Amino acid sequence: MADLICLANSRKNTLRCIAGMTADGVWIRPVSTLSDGGITWTMRQIDGREPELLDVLSIPLAETGPDFGHQPENRSVVKGPWSRTGKVAASEVKGLCEKREVLLHTDSDRVPVQMVSDLVPGDRYSLQLIHVKDAAFCRTTSIKGKRQYRARFTYARQRYDMGVTCHPLSCFPVKATEEGTMRVQLVCPGTDPVALKGLPVTVDMDRTQA
User: Fold this and answer.
1) What is the mean pLDDT of the segment spanning 71-77?
2) How far is residue 96's CA from residue 60's CA, in Å, rounded to a whole number?
3) CB under 8 Å to 92, separation ≥6 — which residues?
4) Looking at CB atoms within 10 Å, which of 38, 194, 199, 209 has the fewest?
5) What is the DSSP string of 181-208?
6) In the chain, pLDDT over 70 holds for what percent of residues?
7) Cβ distance 199 to 151 under 8 Å?
8) Does residue 194 carry a pLDDT above 90?
9) Is CATH 1.10.760 what the domain over 2-91 is classified as, yes or no?
10) What pTM was computed for the model?
């Protein structure tokens, strides 16, 4: 069993990617036995509800899990119900934010999976919690013609423009150009050799109507 602060409930094809941190800042991504590790509704639902950002979750997990060569945070889900034991404010996770020279290994919105796999195990990571001061959100249309939310912000003196993959009801609408905390992960559909960086967002700001 592991207790973690939920920092993502992201789309993963037809399933979900759930991830969070323990109170002392250790990343955990629960994964299933499915080929891509996605979490089904049956596994993740708590009293008929999705896990929400900043929920404190208690999840039955093994000590290890398949890392797919680039996700060392993965731990396998074992039999047993998930439970929600509390909720934290976004301001409470600010102290868990990480500082690195780039965002998930590169300064763009994607990274070659092989590049991460080639790193020594101690240098691999696929989750990152950051704090930014100039986040702006917009709704656009993806190249596939689907509605998409994007976040534009500066991190480590580099400008980023990234798709938002979180459960939208947990994140929007929000007021743009305010200070907030963001959680970023590698999103690796299938065996695609290039992973997009997905951006679930934990927003520490006033909500407003879009």
Assistant:
1) 96
2) 23
3) none
4) 209
5) EEEEEEE--TT-SEEEEE--EE--S---
6) 79
7) yes
8) no
9) no
10) 0.81
User: In Å, what is the CA distance from 195 to each residue of 61, 113, 163?
Assistant: 26, 6, 12
From the list 51, 4, 10, the residue with the least C-alpha distance to 27 is 4
Mean pLDDT (whole number) for 78-82: 95
d(CA 25, CA 28): 10
Q: Where are the domains of the chain?
A: 2-91, 92-202
Residues 144-182 have pLDDT tens digits of 888 877 888 888 899 988 887 765 444 444 443 345 555
Kindly provide the residue ranges of all beta strands, DSSP E only, lying in 113-202, ordered along the sequence: 127-141, 147-155, 158-163, 178-187, 194-198, 201-202
Token representation of residue 127: 């989750």
Identity at 44, one-letter amino acid code: R
* Strand ranges (E), the chain: 2-12, 15-21, 27-31, 55-59, 74-76, 83-87, 110-112, 127-141, 147-155, 158-163, 178-187, 194-198, 201-202
CA 59, 132, 165: angle at the middle one, nearest 5? Answer: 50
How far apart, in whole angstroms, are the C-alpha atoms of residue 24 and residue 33? 27
Quote the DSSP letter at residue 80.
Answer: S
CA atoms of 110 and 100, how far apart (whole Å): 16
Closest to 21 in 3D by CA, of 65, 75, 68: 75
For residues 76 and 151, give the distance between their C-alpha atoms in angstroms, rounded to a whole number: 30
